[in-house]
Design a protein that fits this description.
The chain is an alpha+beta fold. It has 3 helices and 10 strands. Strands 1-3-4-5-2-7-10-9-8-6 form a 10-stranded antiparallel β-sheet. The chain starts with 10 loop residues before the first strand and ends with a strand.
Length: about 240
């Protein structure tokens, strides 16, 4: 992870951890964290008056948990551009809490033509707004997690209407509820990292099958399967 840059655009906002954002032990959930980071990212683009005629889709989100937040803690979220690619960019968000919570979040977003939905080069306006913070750091949009080997255990995952947006696609935060269930089943490390790489995505009418596997290095991996193929891949590692 990288520090907040000394120069270039940065945007900050605060949120208080509410009852609906924590697990039964009072620990801040990762699906709630994702909602918070989505909100501050949206607020940043509105504040920057970024051209809204194009579209963005998330490719990968990585979360490093240094210390979990707890109920009623006030969080400060600071976002900036962590790197650029040809048709994508990385958004970084540092989250620190009034009681010592600390998260580092990095997401790769693909820039799309809203009509064809094909990747589109970054605009001059975007680079002018966010390029200084990114510096000379380049980032990749390729997937890095292992493909499914069909060796894990499988089970049905029932989706809910509340998991979907106006485009009838599962909201990014809803995928993290699966990660939360795995943490509830297997234990939540004090420090950990988690990654989700988004692929085909999940639509409102899809039936979802989860495949879960662990490896000797203590990583837990999950694949979201639909009739169209693997919709997303996730991984949890302690430390």
């Amino acid at each position: 992870m990288i520090p907040i840059p000394l120069s270039g655009r940065k945007f900050s906002a605060s949120r208080k951890v509410r009852l609906g954002d924590v697990d039964p032990a009072g620990c801040f959930r990762l699906d709630a964290l994702t909602r918070y980071t989505q909100d501050v990212s949206s607020d940043d683009t509105v504040d920057a008056e970024l051209d809204e005629s194009t579209a963005w889709v998330v490719r990968r989100t990585e979360v490093h948990v240094i210390r979990h937040a707890t109920l009623a803690e006030t969080l400060t979220l600071t976002t900036f551009c962590g790197g650029l690619g040809r048709r994508w960019a990385e958004r970084r968000i540092q989250v620190v809490g009034s009681a010592g919570a600390h998260y580092e979040v990095a997401s790769i977003w693909i820039h799309l033509d809203p009509t064809t939905l094909r990747p589109l080069g970054l605009t001059e306006q975007f680079i002018a707004l966010f390029g200084e913070a990114a510096g000379d750091r380049t980032v990749s949009a390729s997937h890095q997690l292992p493909k499914s080997t069909d060796a894990g255990t499988r089970r049905q995952w029932p989706t809910r209407a509340v998991d979907f947006d106006t485009q009838r696609h599962m909201n990014n935060a809803a995928y993290w509820s699966v990660i939360e269930q795995l943490l509830a089943d297997r234990g939540r490390p004090e420090q950990m990292s988690a990654v989700i790489e988004y692929g085909r995505g999940i639509s409102l009418d899809d039936d979802v099958l989860l495949e879960v596997a662990s490896d000797p290095a203590d990583a837990t991996r999950v694949w979201w399967h639909t009739a169209s193929g693997v919709a997303a891949t996730g991984q949890i590692e302690p430390g």
